[in-house]
Amino acid sequence: MTRSQIPATKPPRISDVAARAGVSLSTVSRVLNGSTTVDSAMADRVHEAALALGYAASPLARSLVLGATQTIAVVVPDLGNPVFQAVLRGLTSTASRAGYHVLVADSFESADEEPELAMAARRRCDGIVLCAPRMSDETLARLLPALRPAVLVNRSSDAAPSVSVDYRSGILQLLAHLTELGHRTISYVSGASAAESDAARRAGIRAFVDDHPEVTVREVPGGVDFAAGHGAADGVQASEATAVLAFNDLVAMGLLSALSERGVRVPQDVSVTGFDDIPFAAYTTPPLTTASVPVEALGTQAADRLLALLAGRAPDEDVSFEPVITVRGSTGDALQR
Amino acid sequence: MTRSQIPATKPPRISDVAARAGVSLSTVSRVLNGSTTVDSAMADRVHEAALALGYAASPLARSLVLGATQTIAVVVPDLGNPVFQAVLRGLTSTASRAGYHVLVADSFESADEEPELAMAARRRCDGIVLCAPRMSDETLARLLPALRPAVLVNRSSDAAPSVSVDYRSGILQLLAHLTELGHRTISYVSGASAAESDAARRAGIRAFVDDHPEVTVREVPGGVDFAAGHGAADGVQASEATAVLAFNDLVAMGLLSALSERGVRVPQDVSVTGFDDIPFAAYTTPPLTTASVPVEALGTQAADRLLALLAGRAPDEDVSFEPVITVRGSTGDALQR
DNA sequence: TTGAAAGCGCTACCAC
DNA sequence: GTGGTAGCGCTTTCAA
């Protein structure tokens, strides 16, 4: 190949700048870090030399001596999930404003590899944001001391600050909405059973059913993505429910798709709700009734807490966002059946 | 706060392992890097000590001495765009399989800050993948030598390998499809005018119109997201076109939404096409006819090339993916009008 | 085969 | 105010 991929010249080092400016390394370092008072003529010469050479201190060397990398890591279970994409986005935005870089690690839904992945990421930076919904409490507890400073997303611990969503509240609102429409037999297409967020939805369902004996909710095994929703169609039809609560919007969309293939009309034959209100929920056929979650805020707030920790400040209290339900076309009156 | 966020103990250093195993630093390093032959009894002692101490070499220190960080960076203009999300996903998957970490930098559509952002990211890692559709050729040419090794996404250069999409071909296929349906007056809702991918679409349109004098294509200023598509509805209606080519799926979805609000039926009143075939394009109302782009492959192929460069191998030839059009419900016969 | 020591590039302490 | 110099934690010659 004709195009060389090796940088033409190695980047200049601090000694090059010192030599060119005719001063010591220490002086260059001082000038460039704007610390102590330096003779202004000297400072000028240093700046001039640095500029001419295109010098910038090696972040690697600085990090080693300073003990700080100006980088934070985020571990997510699936970068293909709009929720984690939004978290990453919020995180990146807040981190970069504070001069921090972001290292991203995708565990590809493999809870087994998460501890190692998190540790590896953590060792190359100053702190970590962990989105590990399926990691066991024991593993998390064992891991956290080595990960600190760390912030948790969607799970709580007394060993680290956290930001989460009140899934229980969201599911209660969704159930109230469906009940109001006259639905009495409802299916819940569940998510990953090990996840705290699935447990929270279940708890909400139990609480609601206890208060409303006339309502029956049956669980249909699901998952967290399109395919899981699509595959749950059999179970949903078998349940004879008039409405179904899908674990999240992705599952709801997969279900919508499978239902449409079978000629089942939504919401005339069955109502469907999602969860999260991802940007595309408004554009499905029919548009999805769902519980809106401020997903990007999850990322910014997690970053805020981690940055506080890194700055030696006390992080804000743990926060739990209340979803707000958004009624669209996928839910309708049970009597229409 | 009761929960300390400072790691209980500083991580063990190589000297701790050496002391515990009763050997020199050099020996520990050799054993752990599996290089030269070492006495097996000694090696055992070292491994034992390392395990007991939970030792892992500081990536920072290793990077400094080795001159390699095992990290690659990716710069994207907008992490909220499904296309770049997919690129990131593909990249992360390939990189992690090769033992590389990924640093992600979002320029938030600010072309001005991209050079600095890219440089800052590049300095902390071994190579970079650049998605900078709006950066000027001059800036790119100036930047590239300092960024190398680098791989470009969706723009070509003789100074770096690249992977891209043949937008021209995709737009030609879309136009052929619409023309076949009888459409003669078509609107093109454009993207960012500085982007090479927009220029490629324009070139396709010009070529098509040259060959098909009976077809007229008028340009309506657009953008790259939902809002841009929504805002283009006025222009589209004013153009009296029977079909519209949206810059991408996001723009198409925004347009679909605005059209629906105005009571314009798709595809009865006007046909709409997108571009990219993002995962949600199949779920819009109506489902979107679009040109499918193997967007995750863009990321994996970019990573492959960068990893080749880093391994001192010759990267594969530049690749240009041919979109394949996927006809769904948003396009229909022009005669239905 | 093993250990001592140099050095990756930088910052910060300590004399001057 | 400025310049030596130790040292961040590690790998890798070079001797022994």
UniProtKB/TrEMBL annotation, chains A, B:
Occurrences of domain HTH lacI-type (ranges): 12-66
InterPro entries: HTH_LacI (IPR000843), LacI/GalR-like_sensor (IPR046335), Lambda_DNA-bd_dom_sf (IPR010982), Peripla_BP_I (IPR028082)
Superkingdom: Bacteria
Keyword DNA-binding in record: yes
Pfam family, one: Peripla_BP_3
GO MF assignments: DNA-binding transcription factor activity; transcription cis-regulatory region binding
Keywords, sorted A to Z: DNA-binding, Transcription, Transcription regulation
Record bears the keyword Transcription: yes
Ranges that cross the membrane: none
Protein name in the entry: LacI family transcriptional regulator
Species whose genome carries this gene: Humibacter ginsenosidimutans
